[in-house]
Design goal:
Shape: globular
Number of helices: 19
Distance between the termini: 41 Å
Radius of gyration: 22 Å
Order of helices and strands: HHHHHHEEHHHHHHHHHHHHHEE
Strand order of the largest sheet: 1-2
Mean pLDDT: 80
Number of strands: 4
Structural class: mainly alpha
Length: 480
């Protein structure tokens, strides 16, 4: 049976080692579930890939169910509001409904058993719900959010090693060959590291850059400041090596939006600081692009920016996007009434499908193809709710007890907007790993809004300690 699932004995051995290490960590920290949550977050971008999805997908689900059943009830109280829980549950159901029009579960590929994208997307959506709820459960204090940033920056830095190895030789990834989702000769020119493609690596890296900046600005420890600045430089270099123009455009638009927002709420000092920082970062990015183009002859990132002159203003698209965007229209034309409402799974999205479809390179087109207009409406409703809550830390700045809380709020809101804009030209729903990361970000944003509201309303005795009225205190809740 193992031969059908994975023929490489080295990978089977690696799987066994990962499961043993995971089991050891679980046994050591079984009474400290928050540490297990952080360990899980660390593992997501480094997760082994299989024909049944990333291992982290199932680790998330197992840990979530374990938390619901075996941890103290007071740990899980006051996390998801009724409307929020209903909305997320409906998103999972919308994903499952697409299986009716595309009832594929397993198939053989090159002599191995593989799970269909349609079934995997349903499992992934439940995993997304799980990682989102876990973030709401375990992120309760300022220290928790900064710890999450440190964990994500650290694991992202390790995963970036795969990107550097890809620039040398995609076949020489060593340990990372088990974590890299897709291998291709093109990764020599445009790296993807452990992400599904260079577009999402760029988006993921933009999130990590913001987290690194927040850590740099909020710590007084010299060592941590140096490490944060080093991680920031690393992620800037990784983003440059992806040669993705869209992430720069999305970031620029998000920064312009943020400055307008801060201007409207009267944060004039913040507008000036962001403007100056943006100019500095622009100089750094242009310098890195020019240096990499000079050092690596096979790279022509600046030339890719020059191609933006070919944009058709009336159509609003590049020649490289016109063909894939048209596939969305072709898919909608072929979809039945049921599929238009409840989705058609992946049969119009994958090139190996019977209909020879393709991803439209736009989340807001891909989502209704996969999960229907019902699924898209639910997603947009959730995003509207998340956007409103992410604004709280910025609007209520004067009510916050310390400046660090404001910086975290700005960083999370900017990350949210970059993803929102960047998804116009790419879709994170292609692979389970990228979905877990984005839903973790959204869960963090929602958890932080709840935390700030409690601070402002005075339900917390101090930023780092919950009141007895809330059911537990940060220092001893995980000891039970």
């Amino acid at each position: 049976m193992i031969a059908y699932i994975e023929s490489s004995p080295y990978k089977v051995l690696a799987f066994c080692i990962i499961f043993l290490l995971g089991g050891l960590v679980f046994l050591l920290w079984a009474r400290k579930p928050q540490k297990l949550f952080f360990a899980l977050v660390f593992y997501i971008p480094l997760s082994f890939k299989t024909g049944f999805g990333s291992l982290s997908l199932y680790f998330v689900i197992f840990f979530y169910l374990w938390v619901l059943v075996f941890t103290p009830p007071r740990l899980k109280t006051d996390t998801l509001q009724l409307f929020e829980r209903l909305l997320l549950s409906l998103l999972v159901i919308a994903s499952a409904l697409s299986l009716i029009s595309s009832p594929n579960f397993f198939y053989y590929h090159l002599g191995k058993i593989r799970m269909s994208h349609d079934l995997l997307s349903v499992i992934t959506m439940f995993s997304n719900f799980a990682i989102y709820h876990l973030a709401r459960i375990f992120l309760k204090t300022k220290r928790d959010f900064l710890t999450l940033f440190k964990i994500m920056v650290t694991s992202g830095s390790i995963a970036s090693i795969a990107g550097y190895l890809q620039t040398i030789n995609p076949d020489k990834l060593y340990f990372f060959k088990y974590t890299v989702i897709s291998t291709s000769e093109r990764w020599v020119n445009r790296i993807a590291a452990t992400m599904p493609g260079y577009e999402f690596l760029a988006e993921y890296t933009a999130i990590l850059i913001l987290m690194s900046m927040v850590l740099f600005l909020t710590t007084k420890k010299y060592t941590l400041r140096v490490l944060s600045l080093s991680a920031l430089a690393n992620f800037v270099l990784i983003m440059t090596l992806t040669q993705v123009r869209g992430i720069y455009v999305a970031t620029a638009l998000a920064l312009i939006y943020l400055m307008l927002l801060l201007f409207l709420v009267g944060r004039f000092g913040s507008v000036i600081k962001i403007a100056v920082s943006s100019v500095f970062m622009l100089i750094v990015l242009i310098t890195s692009i020019l240096v990499i183009d000079h050092v690596r002859p096979e790279t022509d990132f600046m030339g890719r920016f020059e191609k933006l002159k070919a944009v058709d203003i009336k159509k609003g698209e590049l020649d490289t996007r016109s063909s894939v965007l048209s596939t969305a229209q072709q898919a909608f034309d072929q979809m039945s009434a049921y599929e238009l409402v409840f989705g058609s799974g992946h049969k119009y999205l994958l090139p190996e499908g019977s209909l020879k479809g393709s991803w439209p390179h736009c989340l807001y087109l891909s989502y209704p193809i996969r999960d229907g207009m019902f699924g898209l409406a639910l997603l947009l409703l959730f995003l509207a709710m998340a956007y409103k809550r992410s604004l709280y830390g910025i609007i209520a700045r004067k009510k916050l007890p310390e400046h660090t809380l404001y910086l975290i709020a700005v960083g999370l809101h900017l990350a949210f907007m970059i993803v929102l804009i960047d998804e116009i030209k790419i879709e994170f729903i292609r692979v389970d790993r990228s979905q877990n990361i984005i839903w973790l970000l959204w869960g963090t944003i929602m958890a932080y809004a709840v935390y700030l509201r409690k601070l402002v309303r005075g339900s917390n005795a101090a930023p780092e300690k919950m009141t007895p009225a809330s059911g537990f205190q940060h220092r001893n809740v995980y000891a039970h």
